[in-house]
Design brief:
243 residues; oxidoreductase activity; 7 strands; ISF_SsuE-like; flavoprotein; FMN_Rdtase-like_dom
């Protein structure tokens, strides 16, 4: 099994989402999967021009020559494509959305009715990768992922595939406290759950209800997280103030 992560954080290799991805991939590798983590911010990906040339002039291929020449085949060659990104203003970051827009060539321009009586573009290929999502939000509360969850569920439908896992971590900044004597064991337990999720995806192509419940449990009380978070913002504002 080939699992490819498309990491869509503007922070690249320094983001909190990466910590989640690394643990998830450890579990997937333990179960025998071949894995790859691609940092989209490091790639040259132009914006879709919306001219439908990938459907009309060069069917199945964008007329722009950039890193999507390699990324699109990497997406299609995956058994599971993982979209990993933080929540930016209630949705996916621009670098992730831009990548997704450029996946249009894998579809056909023609319309078809799906099993729910809605319409979408027909598929160009017989087999599409299954989709998983890994995301974190700086604020407490699973409701931070409502828009993103709906977006990826619709995206799975658009790409004629299945959304097999959604892993959402509220209070994402707790990863910055990994050396904290109180947080360290709590984060250690959570990382073990992420590795378990990686193994389950390889072995069962889905997550068990038990693992999903455990992954979504709050790690620290929201009131405490907000208190220390605001204190840290006060410190940073003071530190960066220009007189």
């Amino acid at each position: 099994m080939k699992i490819t992560v498309f990491s869509g954080s503007h922070k690249g290799r320094e983001g909190n989402t990466l910590i989640m991805v690394e643990e998830f991939l450890k579990g997937a590798e333990e179960a025998g999967a071949e894995t790859e983590n691609i940092f989209l911010i490091e790639k040259n990906i132009g914006y879709c021009k919306g001219k439908f040339e990938c459907w009309l002039k060069t069917p199945g291929m964008c007329t722009m020559r950039d890193d999507m020449d390699d990324l699109l085949p990497a997406f299609m060659a995956s058994d599971i494509a993982v979209f990993a990104c933080p929540v930016y203003f209630d949705n996916v970051p621009a670098v992730m959305k831009n990548f997704i827009d450029r996946l249009a060539p894998v579809l056909l321009p023609h319309f078809e009715e799906d099993e729910r009586g809605e319409y979408r573009h027909a598929k160009r290929y017989e087999k599409f990768p299954k989709i998983a999502v890994i995301s974190n939000a700086g604020l407490p509360g699973q409701t931070n992922f409502e828009v993103e969850s709906l977006f990826f569920r619709r995206l799975a439908r658009t790409f004629h595939t299945e959304l097999v896992a959604e892993i959402y971590r509220e209070e994402g900044e707790i990863f910055r406290g990994k050396s904290n004597i109180i947080l360290k064991p709590l984060l250690g337990k959570y990382k073990k759950l992420l590795r378990c999720a990686g193994r389950e995806i390889v072995e069962n192509q889905k997550l068990s209800e038990k693992v999903v419940r455990e992954l979504e449990k709050q790690i620290v009380p929201a009131s405490l997280y907000i208190k220390f978070g605001n204190e840290e913002w006060d410190r940073l504002c003071e530190q960066n103030r220009v007189d």
